[in-house]
Amino acid sequence: MKQRLFMYLFIFTLLLVIFQFVNAKNIIENYDQKLTKYMAKTEQLKDSIRGMEDNKATDLYSFKFDTNDEAMTYWENEGYRISEFVPFIKDELMNLNVYDTEDHPLVPYASMTDNKMLIDQIRMLNHKWIIASFTDGTYWGEMLLSYDIEDKKNLKFKVVESILYQP
After folding, report:
1. Pick from 140, 154, 155, 152: which is nearest to 104 by CA?
2. Beta bridge partners of 125
3. Other CB atoms closer than 10 Å to residue 118's CB: what's the count?
4. Does residue 112 sit in helix, strand or coil?
5. Cα(104)–Cα(136) distance, rounded to whole angstroms?
6. For residue range 59-90, what is the model confidence (pLDDT) as tens digits?
7. pTM for the full model?
8. How far lies 49's CA from each of 37, 46, 58, 62, 144, in Å?
């Protein structure tokens, strides 16, 4: 009887060990599947982020005169050297910051402080448009300008649209 009891205990222990082994194996496989799924999802999201970062890098070159071959070709065909043309346009626009009157020649808003409205940043978009920002130290805004050159040196600016932000 003692031997049968040990045999039943041995069989019961063996079944318990087999049950524990199978259960642990299923749990580990389940965790492994979840981990694989999460790793694949993480990789997909990382690829997505890389794609967005690549788009940001591309966006830095969009709407910029220096990377717009058609705009540069337009002015080269007019007889201008691009290496001298861009600084000429920017210098002429910045020279408008030196004015004796109360209002800026281009900025369509009067200064509401004791300071003058000045153009502080310029970005040439193409062969016809420029985006410029202006400020008087407290108030600031942006404007879209069109430009044209008459007689090889007479530069004309025209404000197409502008906005003044509130501080």
Report:
1. 140
2. none
3. 18
4. coil
5. 11
6. 656 677 777 788 888 888 888 888 888 888 89
7. 0.61
8. 18, 5, 14, 20, 32
CA angle 159-90-100, nearest 5°? 70
Of the candidates 152, 104, 160, 151, the one whose C-alpha atom is nearest the C-alpha of residue 128 is 160
What are the tens digits of pLDDT across the range 25-64? 999 999 999 999 999 999 998 888 887 776 665 565 667 7
Nearest to 132 by CA among 94, 78, 105: 94
Q: Are 144 and 155 in contact (CB under 8 A)?
A: no
Q: Which of 116, 107, 104 is nearest to 141 (CA)?
A: 107
Q: How many residues in total does the chain contain?
A: 167
**Sheet containing strand 129-135, strands side by side:** 118-124, 129-135, 140-150, 154-165
| Beta carbons of 118 and 105 less than 8 angstroms apart | no
**Cα 93 off chain centre by:** 26
